[in-house]
Specification:
Elements lengths: L9 H5 L4 H23 L11 H30 L6 H17 L6 H9 L1 H15 L6 H22 L3 H34 L10 H19 L8 H21 L8 H11 L1 H12 L6 H27 L9 H19 L6 H26 L9
Helix pairs in contact: 2-3, 2-13, 2-15, 3-6, 3-8, 3-13, 5-7, 6-7, 7-8, 8-9, 8-11, 8-13, 9-10, 10-12, 11-13, 11-14, 12-13, 13-14, 13-15, 14-15
Protein name: NnrS family protein
InterPro entries: NnrS
Keywords: Membrane, Transmembrane, Transmembrane helix
């Protein structure tokens, strides 16, 4: 491993590996985007991004915020998987600039083709950066990660084509398919790291018992769902879809039960991961009930996944990965524990209380923004300063 002097300038440290700029900017962007969305909902401001605020909110919370964190995580993890240097320096700066231009482009008068190109080029370039070391090292177990990134790019293109053609149905299909692809990534990556982090965090280094049937079943079910959204099979209740959602929810329950150790509740970096993954269960079961004809709003299940599952797992993973890759002890202050709790409360309020009172929506936004704000406040220095052990990364 390359050694970097501890006196390296913070500006250099920021571009050492993908997790640094994308975790920091992605979480800060999500904070600003949530506050702006809350201001729009309360009538404080009325900005006019291309396509309208609803299209902007749908696209940006997934393809702006979540995709930035996914890119930062994978561009960092591939160095560990392959033993080859990860993207850094000017190539990383160029990729980050492309992402940043995408965020700004909604509010700047641009030709449609240029806006779509700015947004649509990011994920294919991330996939290319991932594929090179994975193919060179012949890491066949990681080929599905590259495929998932390219499928996510396809969902974004479907969303953008819906925006270009003013077709709300295409936009909805693309975003929901992309959201469930992120859920598939949560299943794949969570299945690898959550049990490992749990054993390590509790001092139990006994090897995990492999259960390939469970991992494969979760992967197949998770991949099938985005395809059904892209094809429009979830536009109306379908009994077969109820079975698929219920089955996948049951598989997630089995996983959580096998991973569980009562010691996790003493460690914020552990319980945050388990509780975030657990939101996949109500997301699946809520849609299973809707497809079975029960009068529940599918939007509640979608927000159980997007706020409870995706956002809370993102914050938990960023907190853990940032410490590990900067050479710091795997411990967080009470403020970060509160950040995890605020995201969880935001999801609970959004799913359980919004159907009964309009004020709950604003409270959910404020709780989520508070959680993200606490993360940015604590991790700003960690992500911009060199590793404490003097190593590169």
């Amino acid at each position: 491993m390359l050694v970097q002097p501890i006196s390296a300038r913070p500006r250099q440290a920021l571009w050492a590996l993908g997790f640094r700029p994308f975790f920091l900017a992605g979480s800060a962007f999500a904070l600003v985007a949530l506050l702006l969305w809350g201001a729009v909902l309360t009538g404080i401001v009325q900005p006019t991004p291309a396509g309208g605020m609803l299209a902007w909110h749908r696209h940006e919370m997934l393809f702006g915020f979540a995709v930035a964190i996914v890119a930062g995580f994978l561009l960092t993890a591939v160095q560990t998987w392959s033993g080859m240097p990860g993207l850094s320096g000017r190539p990383l700066q160029g990729l980050f600039l492309l992402w940043l231009l995408g965020r700004v482009s909604w509010f700047v008068p641009l030709p449609s083709w240029l806006l779509i190109t700015l947004h649509g080029a990011f994920l294919p370039l991330v996939a290319l950066a991932l594929a090179r070391p994975i193919v060179i090292r012949r890491l066949r177990n990681n080929y599905p990660i590259v495929v998932l990134v390219m499928l996510l790019a396809g969902c974004q293109w479907l969303t953008l084509m819906g925006w270009l053609n003013q077709d709300e149905r295409w936009q909805r299909h693309g975003v929901l398919a992309g959201l469930w692809l992120v859920a598939a990534m949560m299943s794949v990556i969570g299945g690898r790291v959550i049990p490992f982090f749990t054993r390590r965090g509790l001092g139990n280094m006994a090897p995990a018992i492999p259960r390939p049937w469970l991992d494969r079943a979760c992967l197949l079910g998770s991949i099938a769902l985005p395809a059904t959204y892209a094809l429009g099979l979830n536009d109306a209740p379908q009994p077969l879809m109820a079975v698929l959602f219920a089955g996948l929810g049951a598989l997630h329950v089995v996983r959580l039960a096998l991973w569980h150790d009562r010691g996790i509740w003493r460690v914020p970096l552990l319980w945050s991961l388990h509780v975030a993954y657990a939101w996949l269960v109500p997301a699946c079961l809520g849609l299973a009930l809707w497809h079975a004809g029960v009068k529940v709003s599918p939007s509640l299940a979608v927000h159980a996944l997007s706020v409870g599952g995706m956002t809370s797992l993102i914050v938990a993973m960023m907190a853990r990965v940032s410490l590990g890759h900067t050479g710091r002890a795997l411990e967080v202050p009470r403020s970060v524990g509160w950040a995890f709790a605020c995201i969880q409360l935001a999801a609970l309020v959004r799913v359980a209380f919004v159907p009964f009172t309009a004020q709950a929506l604003g409270l959910s936004v404020l709780l989520a923004a508070t959680g993200l704000g606490l993360f940015v406040w604590h991790y700003w220095a960690i992500l911009t300063q060199p590793r404490v052990d003097g190593m590169a990364g």
